[in-house]
Specification:
This protein has 155 residues and is an alpha+beta fold. It has 2 helices and 11 strands. Helix content is 18%, strand content 35%.
């Protein structure tokens, strides 16, 4: 197979939105795969409905504010802490331990609020202000998107 033919196959895969093409001809075999940009890994099996994920992503994009912070001021009283990454939300360091924070807890700047696991790396999410936890917007072991609201803190 000529290089031009391979380039043409790659273009077809890209243009048509195909995930994979396998061709075998006269002892020559080629596999072309197009990977998705979002990779979600977990030790648990997931029953995911793609339409629900797309709706959630659209909702998050609509509510996204153009700033680099993972906090957003909502109303005049509460600050929203948002996820800085895509991953799995954990409310405690392990299943045997207590949650980092509960509704009504007073937190200080720098206190760990939760962990978000992304690609087997544990990322501590810390309070950027001192205040009271007035809302916990996700459940333990829930998959969260980038910029998804996690907590509301009243200063």
């Amino acid at each position: 197979m000529k290089f031009e033919n391979i380039k043409e196959l790659i273009n077809i895969v890209s243009e048509k939105g195909l995930a994979r093409v396998d061709i075998e001809k006269e002892g020559f075999k080629i596999s072309i795969r197009k990977e998705n940009k979002t990779i979600i890994t977990s030790d648990k099996s997931l029953d995911v409905d793609n339409t629900k994920l797309k709706q959630e992503k659209k909702k998050n994009e609509e509510s996204e504010v153009n700033d680099d912070s993972n906090m957003d001021i909502e109303d005049e009283n509460a600050i929203v802490v948002k996820s800085p990454i895509v991953g799995t939300f954990y409310s405690a360091a392990s299943p045997d331990e207590e949650d980092y924070v509960k509704l009504g807890d007073k937190v200080t700047k720098g206190k760990t609020l939760c962990i978000i696991e992304a690609m087997k790396l544990m990322n501590d999410i810390e309070a950027e202000i001192s205040g009271e936890i007035v809302d916990i917007m996700v459940k333990n072991e829930e998959i969260v998107e980038y910029n998804q609201p996690l907590f509301k803190i009243k200063p």
